[in-house]
Automatic annotation (TrEMBL):
Protein name per UniProt: DNA-directed RNA polymerase subunit
Pfam family membership, one: RPA43_OB
Keyword Phosphoprotein: yes
Region (Disordered): 1-66
Organism: Tuber aestivum
Amino acid sequence: MPTPAKHHDHKHRRKGKDRKRKLLAGSPPGTSKKARTITTTTATSSSSKRHNNASSSASAVTDSPAGKTPYHAIGASLYLTLSPKYSYRTTQSPHTTPLSGIQKDHLDPLLMSYFEPVNGVVLAYRNVEFESDCARIVGESPFAHVWVFVEFLVWRPLKGMLLKGWVNMAGASHVGLLVENTWNVAIPRERIPEGWRWVEGAGVEVGVVADIEEGTGADGGYWVDGDGKKIEAFRKFRVEAVKAMGHMVSMEGSLLGVNKPEKMPRRERAK
């Protein structure tokens, strides 16, 4: 039977182990670019404010398809690694700082690519802040681990949104649009109005390099509407599907019920 002193020592060690387990359970995970807090606002509203960590979330807020814009300002807390090179500032390299290391190693590579934690394409970022004055070293790794808060400008189209794109490709089975001169949209034949028809081109001789107009196929074919007018310039479409493949985003759309042509911007007409 243990003596009172030994019994007290045993209870003290057990409490110490329990306390250690709680601390480890509350420790940040060791994975890079893991989002802890994400807040979302539309890009036209005031910039998003940082949430309290007690009400953190690991996924972005789901937007309603009724939203008129695919642009969103999103604030996120990310758990990132910091290279030893950027751990301190020297007189020889005054621009080599922890903040510049986070930007160069983690944030700059995200630009114009799909980033899953914010569920969209990162267009820009700002207001980068360290959430603590100290970083964490895990095991024997020379890299420090830090929580960083960042505000992202994100392009996130949703199913049901009405967007517009420039007709830049065409084929008997589809119409291709280019949104914001950046993102491709495929309109399959079943989502093209019934009154439209495909006009076969004269074709191009083998070995001859020809200038192909935008909105036409490789053989010179093109789509015309019910009035016989060529389908070109800007067109409104409805987003039917958005797919993320790696860091790229592809969209499928529909022209049914939204087949009114958009006027070309004045700056485009002047060219």
